[in-house]
Amino acid sequence: MGIFPLRDRKIMSLSEAARLIHDGDIVAVGGNLSAREPIGMIRELIRQGKRNLHTVGGAHGVDIDLMCGAGVVGTVQNSFVGFEADLGLAPNFRRMAEAGTIQVRETDCIAMMVQLRASQFGVPFMPTPVVAGTQVLGLSTDFRQMTCPFSGEKVNLLPALRPNAAIIHAHKADDQGNVKLYPPYFADLLFVEASDKVIVTVEKIITRKEMKHIGSNIPYYEITGVVELPLGAHPTSCYPDYSYDRSHLSEYVRAAQSGPEAFSSQYLQKYVFGPKNHQEYLELIGGEEKRAALMSWQQDEARWRELMLRE
Amino acid sequence: MTEKITYYTIDELMAVCLARTIKDGDTVFNGVAVPLPFTAIMLARKTHAPNSVFWGGLLAGVNPEPCFLPPTSGDSVMLRDADPVLHLSQIFDLVMRGELNRVFFSGAQIDKYGNLNNTLIGSPNNIRVKLPGGAGGSHVGSFARNFTIWSVRHEARTTSKGKRIYNLVDKVDFVTSMGHRTDKGDRQELGIRGGGPDMVVTNLCVFDFDEVSKIMRLKSLHPRVTIQDVLDNTGFEPVIQEKVEESALPTEEAIRIIRELDPLETRKRGFSSEVLKRRYDL
Q1: Cα separation of A203 and A91, whole Å?
Q2: What is the Cα–Cα distance from B119 to B130, expressed in whole angstroms?
């Protein structure tokens, strides 16, 4: 959605890219749960003091919780926000939803996909087979029921949802803005086509020649801006490069569980506002040693298992 | 693994009961926050359901062979040996057109008709506890041919104010995923295609659903559990068959497979610690 045909303007700094997002924007955040979320970009959005953002998407975790705790979010429209059996409830999201300091628009993974699809297809709504009985529909996801004019069967209709921006972390981009995304894809390609602006942080920028050799899967004209940001998904994973940083996430959850003041001093000041730039953040979290540790999942299964248990 | 297996634990018993709800050749999906069903699905694939088609979580890998079950369901160990790897939307499309046989759902509250609450305790205007959300449950629950409900917290606890709080309740505070009947009607009246929940496996027992009333019906008790235990820990009166069986017990082979599949013991998460300590002799 939105065509950006000029190939020479794609690569930008993190702060430039974050400035493309405005207060009140509907933002589709890429990745899922503890995997390949654009946390580096999120830290920059927080530093720039964004307000009243409206997140949309499926099942997520630290990305949405961090945005809530840092006060940049006004509305959360995600199908799930939490850490599952791994680290439990999302503390900021939960606390603020209960207090009413964020609005929650209840939704569902499939409803979200269908609404984004309508935008992707250029139509104002999209049908699904009948869904009923659930209070998720109607409460904050608008829907109608219709009789199909061709077959006579009943269907549900969901309205199109068009994010102002998608923020995604991917693996490679070339200098024209073509992007290579390795699996798991989650819903990221849907976000690209359904959203107006698409901002992608990548592990590495490569030459156009190298990209032609490996083959990109997101074309340059869908991309508004690209930022080279190694370990840009940290503390979430970015396979096949690095696993998630479970000990950092545990620290995050403990800080978030301790209330807004503790979260601000123990996490936000330390990791978001403290480091002057992304390079300083990488040094703070453990530099080259940490990077090597998170990448070591590839060595053998025992090592991979050990990474899953770090407290 | 060569050591002799002399006992099993409640999670292993439940994995066996959950696995039995999968038939060979079924299409099966596990989504978000389902660590124990994950074990059950892999066990079923290794034993009686080798021809089942399984998509491993939101990563959308077809028939993965993970070397451990991860605590975060989106981890790329779920892509190991998976081929092809799809886009998540392809699985959701398949679910929408009615081709998913089996999926597993739980809830902070589960009511007598199998309605599930993963959204909030209280009411939308007065949220006492905000739960993580139902992920795909509200829609997948409408489209799937059937789903198995599972609970590792089938227990009652008493609050400081003396109130009894149940996981299995008479009526959920909020319907995230529909079971068989709500105030608005039953599945047929509402025009829902999917068959809904047909089995419920908890840490105490197994239920199915009464054909007429659509209320949970006690089918089998786990070892050392009595009917009174079930009634004491349930916030409604289930239908009780004349003949309540003992739940299917694990074999040594099944336990060995489970422990090899899940070296991180992800399947044990969510249970209360006293319940996990119990050992059942083989």
Answers
A1: 29
A2: 6
For A118-156, write each residue's pLDDT tens digit. 999 999 999 999 999 999 998 877 899 999 999 999 999
CA distances from A112 to A95, A116, A196, B93, B186 (A): 24, 6, 17, 13, 25
List chain B residues with CB under 8 Å of A97: 127, 130
Q: Do A132 and B142 count as a contact with CB atoms less than 8 A apart?
A: yes
Q: The pTM is what?
A: 0.97
How many of the other CB atoms lie within 10 Å of CB of A78?
28
The answer for residues whose C-beta is within 8 angstroms of residue A54's C-beta and 6 or more apart is: A24, A25, A26, A27, A73, A74, A75, A76, A77
Q: What are phi and psi of A166, to 5 degrees?
A: -115, 135
Give yes or no for residue A273 having a pLDDT over 70: yes
Distance CA B210, CA B245 (A): 16
* A44, A148, A281 from A276: Cα distances, Å: 11, 57, 8
**Do A34 and B88 make contact, defined as CB atoms within 8 angstroms?**
no
Amino acid at site A6: L
CATH code of the domain occupying A14-106+162-233 = 3.40.1080.10
Same domain, B136 and B62: no
Domain with CATH 3.40.1080.10 in chain A: 14-106+162-233
Domain of residue B38 covers: 1-104+249-282
**The pair of three-digit structure tokens given for residue B112, joined into one six-digit string:** 């007598």
